[in-house]
Amino acid sequence: MIKTLARSIREYKKSSILTPLFVMLEVLFEVMIPFLMARLIDQGIDAGDMGVILRLGMLLLGAALVALTFGALSGRNAAIASAGFARNLRQDMFYNVQSFSFSNIDKFSTSSIITRLTTDVTNVQNSYQMLLRMAARSPIMLTFSLFAAFSINRRLSLIFLGAMPILAIGLFFIIKNAHPIFRQVFKTYDKLNNVVQENLRGIRVVKAYVREDHERDKFEDISQEIYEKFTKAEKLLAFNMPLIQFCMFGSMLLLSWFGARAIVASGNNPAIGLSTGQLMSLMTYTMQILMSLMMLSFVFVMITISRASAERIVEVLDEETDLRNNDNPVYEVEDGSIEFQNVSFCYSDKADKMALRDVNLKIRSGETIGIIGGTGSSKTSLIQLIPRLYDASRGLVKVGGRDVRDYDIKTLRDQVAVVLQKNVLFSGTIRENLRWGDVNASDDEIRRMAELAQADEFIRDFPDNYDTHIEQGGSNVSGGQKQRLTIARALLKKPKILILDDSTSAVDTRTDAFIKRAFMEEIPATTKLIIAQRVSSVQDADRIIVMDDGEIKAMGTHAELLADSEIYREVYESQVKGGMADA
């Protein structure tokens, strides 16, 4: 896990190395201060020597200023390193998600990925900053302070060694019990994000069915669950401070008791006693040692919280796409012919049932194929294998006479334009959205493809025409307008294969007919696969495929299927209410 996270440090290695270096120098000068104070008291104040007081006073001031300078430098570099590390983590996660196949994406919910990119990365960022400063500072301060304390009085310094095991054992049990709870908390955050996301996406449905109270109760329930789990974890972490204070004040009490006795003893035998300045230095070192332990405990607490986040981040970073180019990929698709040879497919290895079973199909380049079938008949599953959104579980899928796995993925997908059921437009102008199909498309090309998709007319009705701003998700255009825009975007790719997955369901039959006619006349060389619920959308196709339960049940022209396919005939008659079927 650490090795995976460390790869995201990259250009911030310098700041990550300089931070503990500056911390070490800061601690070195801080440890010198009690030592100088002891000499100031014993050799200057008690002896009444103003020269010693001035000299040591200047040294104290200089040590404090140098420590302050190194402290500021360590803080600055820690901030740069942690913020940069977090930026790289988000970038690496996002880039890796972009490379995922659909099957990879299916392993993570949208809300979970958002939580990992935001809350989890922030937790790791805070932890990394504390590691660079406090985790470096505490052991160094502890080591230097113990060395200085033992150099003053070994017997009294044994008090510190007695306090450290008590603190270590207490911290071990706190962290051991708190970590599993924090893992549950961050999983619950995923649920919270999912509830919010569903509510915002479906806000119109919520209001239409007057379900605001229900949604509010769902949000309160999940928030209460997070509150209860966080409270449980924080109650365990709350024992951290009392434990530290017990060790700190206990050590100071014992040090004061035995130190006072040693000072009294020094009146009779100065060689075996303790001076006032030395006791004061030991008290200061006590604070430094125990503050170091306290900071170290805070680091462990932060690591406990961020460990669960780090594990979730690594899950995304370590996920490898199951769709890769072979060693010698093909960079040219010869034509738009498609062939399925004994293809079976399931979405998961654990699935009980195949989504597609033993599909055999040949489609000639330039042919128009209609695909029809009931909900759940795996029409979409079939077409998703063509651009390698998924790979077939068994059998071969060929495009242009070659196995789709032989092609460079980008090359293949550039030649296969897919307009899926869920049409997505991005925030920006209509022109910018259409140029997703071809970033170098001219205004004339954009307008021409919009005309083919029957979108040009309504675009020109907008005040800003093609510069009209589209809101996120295309919320300011109708469903039919959104579908026509996404079809125009796909046409701009100038693909050899065009797949329309129920992408004209929101347009009227007249517009649908115009779109299909434009395809026939303007892009005859492009292979066209049209998935539809309406028979009228596919009846003019060269061939129509009837699917049911993951299998091809029949294939032929409209007239042939009316005569030979019971499933097709039932769909047709249900849509025309019987009369037109006889005609």
**Helix/strand structural class:** alpha/beta
Question: What's the number of extended β-strand segments?
Answer: 12
CATH structural fold name of the largest domain: ABC transporter transmembrane region fold
Work out the radius of gyration: 36 Å
- CATH classification class of the largest domain: Mainly Alpha
How many domains make up the 3D coordinates?
A: 3
Helix content: 55-70%
Mean pLDDT, as a whole number? 83
Work out the strand percent. 5-15%
Taken from the alpha-carbon principal axes, the silhouette is elongated
- Runs with pLDDT <50, length 5+? 268-272, 578-583
CATH superfamily of the largest domain: ABC transporter type 1, transmembrane domain
Biggest sheet record: 6 strands, mixed
The DSSP helix count reads 20
Order of strands across the main sheet: 6-9-10-3-11-12
Would you kindly provide a written description of the structure presented here, covering whatever features stand out?
- The chain is α/β, with parallel strands linked by helices and 583 residues long.
- The chain folds into 3 domains: 2-183 and 231-318, Up-down Bundle (ABC transporter transmembrane region fold); 329-415 and 496-583, P-loop containing nucleotide triphosphate hydrolases (Rossmann fold), CATH 3.40.50; 421-494, P-loop containing nucleotide triphosphate hydrolases (Rossmann fold, 3-Layer(aba) Sandwich).
- It is 63% helix and 10% strand.
- It has helices at 2-6, 13-45, 50-99, 102-105, 110-152, 154-201, 203-208, 212-237, 240-268, 276-318, 379-384, 409-414, 430-434, 443-452, 456-461, 479-491, 509-522, 558-564, 566-576, 579-582; strands spanning 338-345, 356-363, 368-373, 394-399, 402-403, 416-419, 428-429, 469-470, 497-501, 527-531, 543-548, 551-556.
